[in-house]
Each structure stands twice: as C-alpha cells, then as structure tokens.
Amino acid sequence: MTKTLYKNAQVFTGKRENFEELSFVVDDQTGTFTSDEQVDQTIDLAGKYVMPGMINAHTHIVADPYGRIAQLGSSEASAPTATFLAITNLQKMMTDGVTYIRDVGSVADVDIELAALERQGDLFAPGIVASGSPLTMTGGHFSEGAYEVDGVDEVRKYARLLLKKGVNNIKLMATGGVSFDGETPHDIQLTEAELRAAIEEAHHKGRTANAHAQGTQGIQNALRAGVDSIEHAVYLDDETIDMFLQKGTYIVPTLAAPWAINQNPETLPDFMVNKSEELAQAHVESIGKAAQAGIPLVMGTDSGTSFNNFDKNSSIEMELMVNAGVTNLQVLQAATINAADLLQIDTQVGTIEANKLADFIILDDNPLENIKALQDEKTVYKKGKKVQ
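RE: above sequence
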C-alpha cells in the first residue's frame, strides 16, 4: 500500500475561503485523502496551487456539440454511438479538471450504466450523478430525447420508472428554451402540479430533482413545486430572487451555452441564434444579481449544446460567471462545496479532507486572484490517479 505526501502547496480545501499553505496525504490504493502520517513517497508542490476537482452539474455527455455524430436531444443515436460519445466526453472533461458531473439529459440509460461502472471501479472517468432521460410535456423542450408526459399521474409514473432504473436525480422541463424551434424561453411547459408530482417522488427516495427553467413564471412554478436547483435562470426579477432565498434553492447558470452559440452565429439556425442573442444580456444580469443577493450557485455548462464543448468549457464557465459579477470565491465554491452539497455527494467530494476521494487539481497560479488560471496548464488527479 502506497501513501503519498503532497507538501508545500497553497491549498484551497473548500472548507475555508482562501488558499493556505499545507500538506495532504493520498492513499494511492484506495484513492482517498488520509490523515495517516506514515508515507512512502513525497511530492513537493512549492509554488503550486491546489483545489478540489471541479464538479460540473449540468452536462449532456451523449451529445456531440458539433453535430457531426449525433444531435443533442435526438433519439436517433444508437446506444453504442451514445456510449462512445459519452466516454469520449467524460475523458475530455477530466483534462479540464472536472472530476464529478451530474448528467441531465441522456439516452438509452447510458449515463445510468456508466455511473454504475465508474462507482465500481471499472471505468476511469468523472463520477456521475445520473438523471437518465428528462421528463417533458408532449412536444416540449428536448422532447425527442425525453419521456413525454402529460398530467400528474403520468409524470408520477415516469418519475417512478426513472427511480427504478437507478437515477439519483430527475430532470424536468418547466419552460421552453433556445436550442429547439417552435418554443421560447418564456413558454410554460410542465405545470406546477406536474413538477411537484415528480419532485415528491424524487424526494421520497432521498434523491434530487432539477428543472430547466428560463422564463420568470416557469422559474417560479418550479420553485413553488420544491425543485432542488433551477438550470439557466435567465429571467430573474426581485420577487423571484426572494423566492430563491426563502427556499434555499440553487441556481446552475450555464452561461457557456448561449456564449458558445453567440460565438458561432454563421453556422447555426436563425431561430437558435436569435433567441440566444436576445437573452444573453438578461442572463448575465440575472446571474450577477443572484450572486450579489447570496443565492447559492453551482457550476454547470450545458456541454453538448451547440459548440459548447467538453474539453474547455468548464473552466470558461468559471470566467463567464466572474464576468457576470460572481466573485472568484463564489465561483470556486460553486464548482466544489456547493456542487457537492446539491448533488448529495458531499461525503465523497467537494473538499480536500481525510476519507474523501482524492480528486484535486494542481495549478500554476491562484484562481482567487485570476480565474483564468483554471484555463491554463494544469495537473488533474482522479481518485489519487493522475489524469493523462
């Protein structure tokens, strides 16, 4: 059994609000941090900065963001193709420093099965909180890649089916969105009663539920229904911000999604570009107001949407959040301790402390001073093993 001491680094453990010089020990056999002081080897990290591995709480790993192999939300991709894409995308995210994800829109139960393989040690990849296929109304957002459900009883049945399959989260569509034609971000889709039925089933099993919600009314419906996190949260007014604070609900901003579309307007459909450009500024302003109000944020990218890649966009999302008015500290917390709490994996990851998974990143510069340090060369460890 080998234990490795990493010494002299400046470490952001996630439990304090700054980097501090300290040493930590990794049990290389179990892949966990340990308090054992008897070590077999030492690595000197003088001049380096260390933080917990990042957690990305909004991905679509079965998608190809460039549309060459499979379109996001399409049921046409076979299970083998979806699995190939998922494994490829998981490896790309690890190189960017992502060591755990929540996938919120899969096909053929790919995320559920890969999550099990990773948990039992047969797949070297980020840990996965799986949601399986989302629940949407007939013809609703992501409908080709989701279970189409109408009415409280049908929603409840399919929520129970997802839980039977082994999901740890249920993804719900409360509004329309950008990436699909024939709807707007303001459209109300699953009703408050429908949302509540699925959320109740998730909570009965001790699992979470999150909602795609962009327009104000849809966001409020999901908040009243008891959702654990709102994805995107594009249009927030003061009343809605107060609702978040009263309920303690998280926001997963996914600023990288419209940003990526707006970088590539010449190659995407007009309907998508027009909607994305229309909401971009409101989205940025809403996330800045949410951060300033103290709403807890969790990092997520929506990777898999158009041009929204897996190999760089987690660290880019962090910069976009800072540009929106989120502090560097809030951003680091969003990608570590807050994400672990939302995803109910805080006993395993999110901080650097004994008995948690040895998921960590080694950086050359301090991201509390310059968030773009996360986009530079970095060394990533997953369960104590260096990611190549």
